[in-house]
Amino acid sequence: MIEANKVSLRYADNTLALNEVDVKINPGELVFITGPSGSGKTSLLKLLMGMEYPTAGTLKVLGQPMKKGRSGKISRIRRKIGPVFQEFKLIEGRTALENVYIGMRFLGMSPRKMKEYATTALDRVGLAHKKLSPVEKLSWGEAQRVAIARAVARKPHLILADEPTGNLDHDNAVKILELLKSFRSDQTAVIITTHATHLIEDEKDATFLYVNKGSVSIERRGKE
Ligand SMILES: Nc1ncnc2c1ncn2[C@@H]1O[C@H](COP(=O)(O)OP(=O)(O)OP(=O)(O)O)[C@@H](O)[C@H]1O
């Protein structure tokens, strides 16, 4: 589902954010990306989302080569990806339900189906009772769960979460990780960057990508 061969990313100012990364991720994998601040974790997620392109090497996501000039095909791939980024980009003045709809707007679904999927997603994140609340009236943790509902409502094949445990106390960080992990399925891989290594060190069935100064090493644990 993801195949990176000697992928590098050099930004316009010449910063080498990723250096010859080789990684293969299979459908249904749970992946944690860890590493020091500035090591390249977000850059890796941006490549997977098609927000940046490799400046060397080859990257395929869900069978699609991720390179410049393929924006039509890449936007079709993006529909199969559910991103949860640090700044949630929820739309104020709109309800939780409307914010989840917005994530599905380009999928060509009927309004009835969209409502059904959005309602199910809000239910899964424990916010059915807040679906008609404007998002600015929600707590930070609730807003984060709306962002997760928005990412998962379309039933993506790949969920990408950038530092979802940041800004959360221990109990809520554990809950958010459990919630994200619950969306893993045979078809859906879940990839999470986190600084909270103490919360994931006991994971027995997961893949760990350790990023250090743009290099990535991989450890696979569990059911092979
Ligand atoms: N748009 C950009 N232009 C130039 N350099 C960038 C850009 N974005 C990130 N960088 C640099 O690339 C390197 C990797 O950054 P990245 O954001 O991927 O790290 P990170 O591991 O996600 O860090 P953090 O844990 O602090 O979020 C850093 O040196 C950063 O300063």
Write the layout of secondary structure elements.
Elements: E1 2-10, E2 16-25, E3 30-34, H1 41-49, E4 56-61, E5 64-65, H2 71-78, E6 81-84, H3 96-102, H4 111-124, H5 140-152, E7 158-162, H6 170-181, E8 189-193, E9 206-212, E10 215-221
Parallel strand pairs: 3-8, 3-9, 6-7, 7-8
Antiparallel strand pairs: 1-2, 1-4, 4-5, 9-10
Helix pairs in contact: 3-4, 3-5, 4-5
The structure holds adenosine-5'-triphosphate (ATP).
What string gives the helices and strands in order? EEEHEEHEHHHEHEEE
Percent range for helical residues?
25-40%
Task: Please name the CATH topology of the largest domain.
Answer: Rossmann fold
**CATH C-level category of the largest domain:** Alpha Beta
Percentage beta strand? 25-35%
Instruction: Please tally the helical runs, counting DSSP H or I stretches of 4 or more residues.
Output: 6
- Count every beta strand, where a strand is a DSSP E run of 2 or more residues: 10
The number of distinct structural domains comes to 2
The strand order across the widest sheet is 6-7-8-3-9-10
- CATH homolog superfamily of the largest domain: P-loop containing nucleotide triphosphate hydrolases
Structural features, described:
The chain has 224 residues and is an alpha/beta fold. The chain has 2 domains: 1-80 and 156-224, 3-Layer(aba) Sandwich (Rossmann fold), CATH 3.40.50; 88-155, no CATH class. Helices cover 28% and strands 27% of the residues. It is built from 6 helices and 10 strands; from the N terminus they run βββαββαβαααβαβββ. The strands form 2 sheets. The protein has a 6-stranded mixed beta sheet with strand order 6-7-8-3-9-10, sandwiched between helices. Strand 7, helix 6 (170-181) and strand 8 (189-193) form a beta-alpha-beta unit. The longest helix has 14 residues, at 111-124. The mean pLDDT is 91. Adenosine-5'-triphosphate (ATP) binds next to helix 1.
